[in-house]
Write a structure and sequence with these properties.
516 residues, alpha+beta, Serine Threonine Protein Phosphatase 5, Tetratricopeptide repeat, Neuraminidase, Immunoglobulin-like, 3 domains, five-stranded antiparallel β-sheet, 29 strands, 20% helix, globular, signal, TPR-like_helical_dom_sf, WD40
Length: 516
C-alpha cells in the first residue's frame, strides 16, 4: 500500500503549491506526482499532452501515474500504446505488459513480458518482475475457470465516495463498521490523506459515515489495521512525524474514541505494519511485522501475567512465505485464519487466503486462495467477517463504483442465510384512531418476483400479533379479512447477519367501516 508521507515543512510546501497556478500543466503534474496525488497528476499531464502531442516523457508519467493509483489502470492503455510505438524498449514494453495485465488481456500481456525477459539479463529486476507477472497470469487463468459463487453489494454513498475507501472491518454482530478513506484533501499541499471513518447499522441500514475525532485522526495517514470483535478496540497504522506505528484506541462515547496509543513492544520491535488481530480477552495478538529479510510475516504474541506482551513468534506451519503476508483475521473459534499475501499463488499483487488449523500437527495448513472474483488483478488487502459464513466485507475497484476503491459486502451464495425474526403488531387506522381489528386477519407473505406464497400467518384475535421468520429477499405482504384483501405492502429483508432475537414491527392498515 502506498502512502503520502507528509512533510513537516508544510509552510514551505504550501508556498510552493500555491504558486503552481502560475506554472504550466507539466509542473503541476510533476508536483502532484511527487506527493502521490495521481488523479490530479493525470489530469494535468493530459492537458499538457494536448499541447505536446505524443511527448514520450508525458506519456510515461501518465502511464506510471495510472499504475500507481487506485484508478482503473486499464485506462492507461491508449497512452502506453503510443509510448511503445515511439520507444520500444524493455522499460516501455514492461509498462505495456502491466497495463495489458490490468485490462485482463492476458495472452498479449504474457507475450510482452516474455519479450522483456528476452531483452534483459537474468540479473535485471525487470526479468524477475516479468516472471512474477507471468505466474500471476497463469494463476488468474486457473482461478477464473472456476469462479466462486458470490455477489458483491456496494454499501452505497453513505459509505463510499469518489475517492478510495480501504480496509473495512466490522464488529462480530455486523452493526459497527470502520474503514479508512482518503476523501480529505489538504489544499495547502495538494494531497489527500487517509483518515479513519465509522458507521453504525440502524434498522438494517448503514448510516452516513463520520470521520473520527482528532484523537484518532490527524493531518497524516491513519489506516485501519483491525477491529476487535465486540468493537471495544480499534487498531490503526499511522505514519505521524515520519514514524510508522501500529496503535489502538477505545470507544469514548458516540462516534468518539480515546487518544490513539502506540502498542510498543513487541510490535514496534518487529516493525509492525498495518494488520493486527486481537482475541476477545486481548490475551493473544496476531500481527504483521518485518522479518530478517525485510518482508512482512505474520507473528503472534501472548499476554504475560504482568499484563505486558511476550516475545513475538512467527506463525507456525505454511502461513509465512518469502513474500509478504498481512491483515490477519482469526475466525471459526480460532480454527481458520484469513490473511493477504502477494506470493506465488496470487493472481495479482495481494490476494486473500485462508488457512485451517491442523489439530494433529498443531500447525496451520497450506493456505487456500479465496478465488475469483473475491480476488482480482488488483491488490486485495483485507477481509472482515461477522458471525456466520455467508457474509464478508472487502474493498475493491469495480465497474459502476462511486469512485476509486469502494467497500462491498460479499455474499457467499453456497452458505445459507439466517432469518430475520419479526414480532408483528397489527392495527387498523380508523376515523377514531389506531385500534385493534375486531375481526380475524390473515397475513400472506409472497415473493415479489414470482408471487409464490412464502408464508401464511393467522393474526391473534385478542392482540393482533403474529411472528414471522423471513429469509433475506423482497416480498409482498398482504393482509386479508377472509378472502378480501385489506392492504398490501412491499417488504425487503437486506442481506445481513441476524441474531435469534425478535425485532418488533408494527403494521397499520388503513381501514374504513363499510355500511350496508
Amino acid at each position: 500500500m502506498k502512502f503520502i508521507f507528509l512533510s513537516l515543512f508544510v509552510t514551505f510546501i504550501g508556498f510552493f503549491y500555491s504558486n503552481l497556478s502560475a506554472q504550466n500543466n507539466a509542473k503541476s503534474g510533476d508536483y502532484y506526482y511527487k506527493v502521490s496525488t495521481y488523479d490530479r497528476a493525470i489530469k494535468a499531464y493530459k492537458r499538457e499532452l494536448r499541447k505536446k502531442n505524443n511527448d514520450s516523457q508525458i506519456l510515461y508519467k501518465i502511464v506510471d501515474s495510472y499504475l500507481n493509483s487506485n484508478l482503473n489502470r486499464a485506462e492507461a492503455l491508449p497512452f502506453v500504446k503510443q509510448l511503445v510505438e515511439k520507444d520500444r524498449s524493455p522499460e516501455t514494453v514492461y509498462l505495456h505488459a502491466k497495463v495489458l495485465f490490468y485490462a485482463y488481456k492476458f495472452p498479449e500481456a504474457i507475450s510482452e513480458f516474455e519479450w522483456v525477459k528476452m531483452h534483459v539479463t537474468h540479473e535485471d529486476e525487470l526479468y524477475r518482475q516479468s516472471g512474477i507477472y507471468i505466474q500471476w497470469i497463469l494463476n488468474a487463468n486457473a482461478y477464473m475457470v472456476s469462479p466462486v459463487d458470490v455477489t458483491f453489494i456496494n454499501l452505497g454513498k453513505s459509505i463510499n465516495t469518489n475517492k478510495s475507501e480501504l480496509n473495512p472491518f466490522v464488529s462480530v454482530n455486523d452493526d459497527n463498521l470502520v474503514y479508512s478513506s482518503n476523501k480529505r484533501y489538504l489544499s495547502k499541499i495538494g494531497a489527500n490523506c487517509y483518515n479513519v471513518c465509522k458507521s453504525n447499522r440502524l434498522k438494517n441500514t448503514w448510516q452516513k459515515a463520520k470521520t473520527l475525532n482528532y484523537y484518532v485522526n490527524s493531518g497524516y495517514d491513519e489506516i485501519v489495521g483491525g477491529y476487535a470483535k465486540d468493537a471495544d478496540r480499534l487498531f490503526v497504522f499511522h505514519n505521524r512525524e515520519g514514524n510508522e506505528k501500529i496503535a489502538y484506541a477505545s470507544p469514548a462515547g458516540k462516534m468518539k474514541y480515546s487518544l490513539l496509543e502506540d502498542f510498543g513492544y513487541p510490535i514496534d520491535r518487529k516493525g509492525g505494519e498495518f494488520g493486527i488481530w486481537s482475541s476477545e480477552s486481548s490475551d493473544t495478538l496476531i500481527f504483521a511485522g518485518e522479518n530478517d529479510k525485510g518482508n512482512t510475516d505474520l507473528f503472534y504474541s501472548l499476554k504475560l501475567p504482568d499484563g505486558s506482551y511476550g516475545e513475538a513468534r512467527p506463525m507456525s506451519g505454511y502461513i509465512n512465505t518469502s513474500y509478504d503476508e498481512n491483515f490477519p483475521v482469526l475466525c471459526n473459534g480460532g480454527k481458520r485464519l484469513y490473511f493477504s499475501s502477494n506470493g506465488e499463488f496470487s493472481m495479482g499483487g495481494f490476494d486473500l487466503f485462508y488457512s485451517d488449523w491442523d489439530e494433529e500437527t498443531k500447525e496451520w495448513r497450506r493456505p487456500v486462495n479465496l478465488g475469483y472474483p473475491v480476488n482480482d488483478v488488483y491488490d486485495n488487502y483485507s477481509i472482515s467477517k461477522p458471525r456466520g459464513k455467508r457474509y464478508a466485507y472487502v474493498s475493491a475497484l469495480k465497474d459502476g463504483g462511486y469512485g476509486e476503491r469502494d467497500i462491498y459486502k460479499v455474499l457467499f451464495k453456497e452458505e445459507e442465510p439466517n432469518s430475520l425474526i419479526l414480532r408483528c403488531n397489527t392495527f387498523l387506522d380508523t376515523d377514531s384512531g389506531k385500534v385493534l381489528p375486531p375481526f380475524v386477519i390473515r397475513a400472506e407473505l409472497r415473493d415479489s418476483v414470482d408471487n409464490k406464497l412464502v408464508g401464511s400467518y393467522r393474526v391473534s384475535g385478542d392482540s393482533a400479533r403474529f411472528v414471522m421468520a423471513i429469509m433475506p429477499g423482497k416480498y409482498r405482504l398482504i393482509f386479508k379479512n377472509g378472502v378480501k384483501d385489506l392492504y398490501s405492502l412491499y417488504y425487503e429483508v437486506p442481506e445481513m447477519w441476524y441474531s435469534n432475537e425478535a425485532f418488533n414491527q408494527e403494521f397499520i392498515i388503513p381501514y374504513k367501516n363499510e355500511e350496508e
